[in-house]
Structures
1.
Amino acid sequence: MSTTMTMAAALNAALRDSLEASEDVVLIGEDIGTLGGVFRITDGLKERFGASRVIDSPLAESGIIGASVGMAYRGMRPVSEIQFDGFVYPGFDQIVAQVARLHYRTSGAVRMPLTIRIPFGGGIGAVEHHSESPEAYFAHTPGLRVVTVADPQDAYSTMRAAIECDDPVMVLEPKRRYWSKGEVDTSVTADLSSARVLREGRDATLVAYGPLVVTALEAAVAAEDDGIDLEVIDLRSLSPLDRDTVAASVRRTGHLVVAHEAPGNVSLSSEVITSVVEDCFAHLEAAPERVTGFDIPYPPGVLEDHYLPGIDRILDAVDRTLGRRNSREAA
Amino acid sequence: MLTTTSAPDHDLVAGLDTPLHVLREDGTRRPDATLDPLLADVDRELLTSLYLDMAVVRAIDEEAVALQRQGELGLWPPLRGQEAAQIGLGRALPETDFLFTSYRENALAWCRGVGPAEMLSVWRGTTLSGWGPFAHHMATPQVIIGAQTHHAVGYAMATQAQGKDDLAVACFGDGALSQGDTNEAMVFAASFQAPVLFFCQNNHYAISEPVDVQATVPIALRPTGFGIPSLRVDGNDVLAVRAASLLAAQHIRAGKGPMFIEAVTYRLGPHTTSDDPTRYREEKELEHWRRRCPLGRLERHLEQLGAPVGELRTEAEQRSQEATTAMQEAVAALPSPAPESMFENVLSTEHPGLLRQREQFRAFTDSLAPEQTEGSSA
Ligand SMILES: Cc1ncc(C[n+]2csc(CCOP(=O)(O)OP(=O)(O)O)c2C)c(N)n1
């Protein structure tokens, strides 16, 4: 029994159903109550569940995360919203030095079932600090789960699973996909730790996550015109990483391309490629390729189309790994 | 309006019960023991120029909103309603004092001679920094709430170390009061007696959240806990804001340490052009504040002094027209940066890794360009 809805509506439904399912779930963040959030992800929830369960917090990210830690001590399951990717840094200390370590520090005595929601990535023509991809900072931190969502069904199921999970989970929501529509069946559950093979293919494995999953699928369709058959994997969980699914795919295709928006330097693509080299080097028929943001701060809005990996840049990398004519062959 | 009965540090705050003001809402002048000594130089000429400044920045602001609606700008944070707070401060300080502001202080930028292209380019998305900070003694506007307060304090500490007497000014909103940064900045300022002015425009909202989510007592009480004296001033009274700013600057320049001003005002428009304020505030409240429009109040005052208000309005319209025409022309002429410029200035020197990325980017974009074969170029 599924309904068509946007990713924003799917996330809203997941939050609503989670609030409904357990009295322990509370939402906290800036502008999430009366306004329903700047992206309206929490629209209507304060009216329905009251101001003590959908909390408009002071404008303080360290406070939002730190207070959530205290709530978790007391048995609650806070879902904290950071309004935009670039505003997570004032809360960084609480996340990496507190949230991620409490279970370990206390030998398992203290559970941190926090969900930290962050709209992330570019592509909406925003001003500074509104288009960042901070995932690598967090994926680097043991004790924290970092997951991304890519379509409405996945958004619904992953958000519910994150809230039910006893570990701290950072859910990165690709803001430029909030308005994309898809079927959502609320009875479908998600496994937080596994990647998804979204399309099977024979010639090369294309790995993406978050906002680039749609782009990767589009690239695979475009590649068909050239007779190239791409396998597309949505990593979904960035930490822990499901390296088995990726390795199994590369064993079949012998070729790997990884795409994400964040700068490539010390990034998720570094990690995925390293894991493949470690796990199935002998199956690689060519050097893996990556398509990422450049190693520069996110540029001003009019240049973001040049910065963000698009279909053409992905196909160019596919051509490189397959030894076909590509933009670098003359160089 | 917030009220407080028992203030622990009453002696450190002026204007706690009623924000300091010298213009009543009907435009008549009232005496104020704290501010009057700073108002000795106020004559009709000064009043007229303050009026013209406020009228022109209102027009600039409205034009920017219109340009956003026409798709020329990606976003704009309107300052309507806050003209007196910003002009009052901007006109009180010498240009050598260094301003660290957020995104909403475009009237201050205007006071500092920032041109229309410099002001609009960030909002059009052609650059991350519209103007040169050192050319205007004004840092590039801050988006991260509260971060600039630290920078102002550090700048002030450096000024102090160099034995100079210019000030740093940190401008921020009521929401910024909740950030650790802002509170840490006050600790530093107080501990080192840094020559810094904290200027908080309490416009009553942080996006949708009313000020009482950030502070349950008047904001002006917060700095007193750090040992920083503060003035709570009617932010819609340009004379009061100017006098309070002069007073604070004198205090700071005399080596007496930091000071804090809470300018009590109201944001009449949306938070930004993508905000819907009807979701979180009532028309009645807006009406109440519309009647307190800072421009109207000064106009009534000038009228009572017998100034030719009709002529003044005409002049304001004319100047506004010039300013807004300049904005339209500037926007139309704003160049889009060359894509490869995004690789510049990442580090102060070039390094091979980035040069390689730029080369690869160039090769890729060239590969997309329509093939220029000899046959087709004829
Ligand atoms: C660290 C950080 N968190 C959240 C935001 C998102 N945000 C932008 S403006 C704003 C409200 C700011 O309110 P206030 O400080 O009162 O200034 P005003 O906009 O009213 O001038 C918020 C929450 C941000 N820019 N930076």
2.
Amino acid sequence: MNSADGSVLAKPDQSLATQSLDDMSRAYAFTTRLDDLVAWGRKNSLWPMPYGTACCGIELMSVMGPRYDLARFGAEVVRFSPRQADLLLVAGTITEKMAPVLVRIYEQMLDPKYVISMGACASSGGFYRAYHVLQGCDKVIPVDVYVPGCPPTPEAVLDGVMALQRMIAKHTPRPWKDQWKSPYEQTR
Amino acid sequence: MSKLDNIKTDLASKFNTANYKFVHAFGDDVLEIPKEDILPVLRHFKASQRFDFLMDICGVDYPTRQKRFDVVYHLFSSKDGSRLRIKCQLAENDWIDSAINTWVGADWFEREAYDMFGIKFNGHPNLRKILTHHQFVGHPLRKDYEADAQQHCTEPLPIHFNNEPGVDGSILNDRYVPLNIGPSHPAMHGTLRVMVELDGETIVRANPEIGYLHRCFEKMAETHPYNQVIPYTDRLNYCSAPMNNVGYCKAVERLLGVEIPPKAQAMRVVLAELSRIIDHIIAVGTGGVDLGALSAFFHLFTYREKVYTLFEKLCGSRLTVAMTRVGGMAQDTPEGWFDDVLAFCKDMRGQVDEISRLMLDNKIFIKRTQGVCPVTATEAVQWGYTGPLLRASGVNLDLRKATPYYGYDALNFDVPVGTSGDIYDRYLVRIEEMKQSIRIIEQICKNPPSGDYTIRDKGIVLPEKKDVYGNIEGLMNHFMLIIKGLRPPAGEVYDATEAANGELGFYLISDGSANPYRLKVRPPCFAIYQSFPSVVKGAMIADAIATVASMNLIAGELDR
Ligand code: SF4
């Protein structure tokens, strides 16, 4: 480029840039299948959306909190928006009144998406065999990992997250996940 | 002359008391009157300032009786701490006058009685379902409704505002912007849902919708033996679970007429005060998060974890402890536990100051909370506020002082009282209460009482394991109690304790069988939350979020 006085400004050394890129591609070789690489990336950057409704939600705060620190597992960014999350952490009792809301949130998440059901209530209705409690959130959405306990200890939740990471890495998603249809489709 | 006699002569001068019944049952004063007299009598008590609080209204179902429902009103006087229960009988399709013009706080309690039993209140502006979902048919707390008869809900409820009298709530005003917040919304706590109509950022009207965590606690209590109800009580206010255990067991013990030993009392007080601290930690910490201050949350939760460690050491579990049993505690304290608690208190004392520096002295925090959505003392009493929120409004009422239990009267502590009832005052009161709780705990732990941790009544408490496995008598005793269950005499009590966010009351009816016949909980935040639409009217949307946070709403006890 010519400046006003006609002198020529030094150009960046194009050849050097290509050279260094070239070196890098020689230095790092990705000796894996592409889908394994993608799975590795997915498993280490889960973005959880906490769906805490009850006591388990409080314990989930402890999992996120200073001592147990879920961030160590790459699941760092807690997002309360389904559009920004790929892991739905259902923590707490889901009542009949809440079930349609849960389904809508699950629908709004973008693929690929995973669900961890934390605690007895979310997994099976827990000890609430009662008229207003949904007997497990898998009645309406597909679940990948169930964490037992009432509430589960934070260690158990971390174990559940690690189990999910192994599933993602080994490409073993739940088979019925792809066939999932909204239970309310007929009524919409 | 007893209090009941006083009431008797007082009423006789005004009403025709020929068919009134005055009963003194298990230490409670009870008045049974015909339904026409309910409203005049309530008005009379309020006007003469005999009773200033309407604590609860609930229904009871006796399907075999000709007039099948009991409607029960619980009154409380802040002057002398006395209580009165007024009951009347009602037939299936009958109605009763609504108390809403006498106490505004009757609003949600009447709606709940309608939802659960189908009791109709004449003159209630907005008598519709509150806890069950909108497609639900029937009244679940009636004895002829099966406990596990689920009815599915297939679609969420659209935005509506029919909590204002004389307005069709499903018609939205197109000059305003309707906004739905929650459930499961970034700015809202878990299951809470508020629908607002906005003029710019100002709230024109608001409508809270609850019941998203209605887990049928009361029905579950009716279908479980007394001791098995304890884990369910844990899950009412799960931020301070041990306090609920204590409240429930205290009610059952009163019905049984037993007094627990000093060691058990001391353990319960220590557990309750530790829970008060962690409950306030949640209120202050998440309140900060709602105002955009995340670091306080992380800082405070370190101390919550320390309390959990103490619970873990005591009973092996963290959040839901179920540590009390009817008649005492489940087990003794481990070696040196009281010393651990003392060490924690020493640590915590400095931290409370740090927290108040971090939060309350923060300029942004002050600006966002001072003078925001204040509630006056009169309004607070009208709505049935209790606990820190009532005290923040300037009413000095704490059940630990007004009607002391478990030796609170022998302990040294102060009750902080606010002036303006704004959000800032609520946090100030909470912070001060944490300091006072530390004081209480230290007094007990420095000199814990010795002796047994439970009574040894064979009809109430299970024998120790060494007896169960060691001799035939212990085995039989264990066997009988498990199979037959613990059976209090027929009767009813209302018993209240000062929980972290207010008066936690248990109204317990026994018919002499192994399960409670009816267990009504009076959750503190239920009465508080019903005032929300009128408190935030005209405020900014961000202030409404701050208000919700300061109310310390726990969905578990709000919806039960
Ligand atoms: S599993 Fe237990 S702790 Fe978790 S929400 Fe249910 S009752 Fe609460």
